[in-house]
Amino acid sequence: MKLHVINTGNFKLDGGAMFGVVPKSLWSKTNPADENNMCNWAMRCLLIEDGNRLILVDNGIGNKQDAKFYSHYFLNGNDTLENSLKTAGFSSDDITDMFLTHLHFDHCGGSIKYNKEKTGFETAFKNATYWSNSEHWEWATKPNNREKASFLKENIIPIQESGQLKFIDGANSKQLGENISLSYMRGHTDAMMIPQIKYKGKTVAFMADLLPSAGHIPLPYVMGYDTRPLLTLTEKEKFLKLAADEEFVLFFEHDSVNQCCTVQNTDKGVRLKETFSFEDYFGK
Questions:
Q1: 40 has which bridge partners?
Q2: What string of DSSP letters covers 121-185?
Q3: Which residues are within 8 A (CB) of 78 and not within 5 positions of it... i.e. 6 or more apart?
Q4: How far lies 158's CA from each of 122, 135, 167, in Å?
Q5: Residue 178: is it exposed, middle or buried by C-beta count within 10 angstroms (0-12/13-18/19+)?
Q6: What is the CA radius of gyration of the chain?
Q7: Angle at 10 between CA 6 and CA 14, to 5 degrees
């Protein structure tokens, strides 16, 4: 098995929304805001090369939305999904499994692209099985008014129409292989999946939106976007305790500075131990 970091570019979101009830005087120490109170965030994905399978975990915001949509998110950086896959030695046609932690637009927007004629949509990974789960799919395709703007039909429905969609059969599923397990989280959105990959003697946890950045490790630092913030707090507390006890490597999807970290138990609860790049920790 080999893991590859796939950078798809950065975007900006309001700092207050990203840290909920925590005052700016505290969260700005780790995530400084610009003059519009916007903080910069990564859309970092993970590519798992495992035997004859090439599994991509999430795929960023995509490139099919209009200029007005993108103007709200201030896309920046030189990375793209296509170029990052190419740097790793692959193309979108090589992907065998497209795993989606959840269906918010910044996690699944790269799933679908315009067809050549620009008359409709098609899957961006034509040879891949797209993995979601039945609970989250139901939640995303019949969205509540609070999350409706995050679940874009053009990112979701064409996956089902393509015939490439399959559902994971629960937390104990081995559909992605013996080295990958899943945890289900319901605080951010219903039935978000957190993959944990056994790799070089460690467990690499792809944190998605359970822990967007190293700055979110203290328990009250919960996003305003979360549908059930108190549940997120409980889920995060339990997961971080496990991560500290078992020395997980936490892989950040959204931290624009830190790719990974480890955490440790302290008198004040679980706290950051160290941050590092994936390559520095595991080697090339």
A1: 12
A2: EEES-TTPEEEE-HHHHHHHHS--TTTTTTS-HHHHHHHHHHT-EEE---TT--TT-TTEEEEEE
A3: 9
A4: 7, 18, 15
A5: exposed
A6: 18
A7: 140
Q: What type of residue is 152? A: L
Sheet architecture: strand order including 260-266:
180-185, 192-199, 202-206, 249-251, 260-266, 269-276
The residue written with tokens 């780790």 in the block is 30
Say whether pLDDT at 173 is over 90: no
Which residues are bridge partners to 181 per DSSP? 196
In the block, residue with structure tokens 């707090």? 233
The amino acid at residue 177 is G
What's the whole-number mean pLDDT along residues 165-189? 94
Under the banding of pLDDT at 50, 70 and 90, the label for residue 141 is very high
User: CA-based diameter of the chain, in Å?
Assistant: 60
Q: Give the whole-angstrom CA distance, residue 144 versus residue 107.
A: 18
d(CA 212, CA 256): 10
Nearest-angstrom CA–CA distance, 58 and 9: 13
Tell me how far apart the alpha carbons of residues 48 and 188 are, in angstroms, rounded to a whole number.
Answer: 25
Token pair recorded at residue 260 = 């990974």
CA distances 73 to 10, 16, 40, 95, 112, Å, are: 9, 15, 9, 28, 19
pLDDT in tens, 66-118: 999 999 999 999 999 999 999 999 999 999 999 999 999 999 999 999 998 88
